[in-house]
Amino acid sequence: MKPKRTWTFALFALFLLAVASASIVSAAGAQTGSVEFVARATPSSGVAEPIRGLPFYLLSKSYVDIRKEAEASQPPPDLDAYVDKLDVSIQLKAWMKKNKTLSISGEDFIKQLTVSDIMNVPEFFKAYVERNAGDQSIKFPQPKYTPRDMQKNPERYEKLHQEYLDSVRKFLTANPDSTSGMDLSLDAIDPGPAWRSLVAKRDPAVNSRALELAQTRYLVAKTETDLEGRGALRGVAPGNYWLGTLEIYATIGDARLQWDAPVRVSAGKTAYLELTNSNAAESHSASH
Asked: Which of 204, 229, 220 is nearest to 284 (CA)?
């Protein structure tokens, strides 16, 4: 009789263990939630299509903020320090620092110039005069002095020189379009291309660091969309998350989209998201 009682007890213990295990699994399931989503893109043709086979990442931090963290770890080049090393006039350096730019070419540059800028920055004044002095179709002011006058009669030189400057200022004020094309004479000293190249070298480092952070420190789960553009993430702890594609674009026709959509996960519930053109994130390259 004793062995029979022992087996009965063992079977009963196994039964209790199974019940307890099921209860634990059930409780664990109730403490987590899920995310289900569908991703579609609509090109200019107007026909929405599912985003197939694209990886989606559930993050504990917005990818926009992750990029900011990455940017903070990769400081941009110091514009003022770069300007200080340039072989240009003090006035031009001051202008660049004030306007936070090193580009001195193109229509945008011409449009931002004021009369004072052109008159007070030697390089701008020289370029402006070179652009207009040889134009026979306009009556551009001509100086009434020579370099020799500076030594022979300094007072007369200063008087005539000031009169010339006043005449140029008057002409410039009356003819604002006369600045067009003056930037061609600044090509040789334009530091804009070299500066842009230096700044561009930072972008790959920022992208690399942002991806590293997203896929390690802030990654919660990852999935890939099916043929219908659907995806699901199970066993997610309750909390606030962001669902997105990091640096990957979903391309359908001329539609090129990224997502960084917020989602709230509650215990025992499923959060549903529909990702479309309307809630796509701004391109990271366009925002920088």
From this structure: 204
Assess contact for 109 and 122: CB atoms under 8 A.
Answer: no
Level-2 CATH architecture, domain 31-60+220-288 = Sandwich (2.60)
213-247 confidence digits (pLDDT tens): 999 999 999 999 999 999 999 999 999 999 999 99
With a CB cutoff of 8 Å and minimum separation 6, the contacts of 189 are 87, 88, 104, 123
How many other C-beta atoms can be found within 10 angstroms of the C-beta atom of residue 15? 10
Q: Is the pLDDT of residue 184 over 50?
A: yes
172: tokens are 């410039």
Sequence length of the chain is 288
Q: Could you give the CA distance from residue 98 to residue 49 in angstroms, rounded to a whole number? A: 48
Alpha carbons 273 and 240: distance in angstroms, whole number:
14
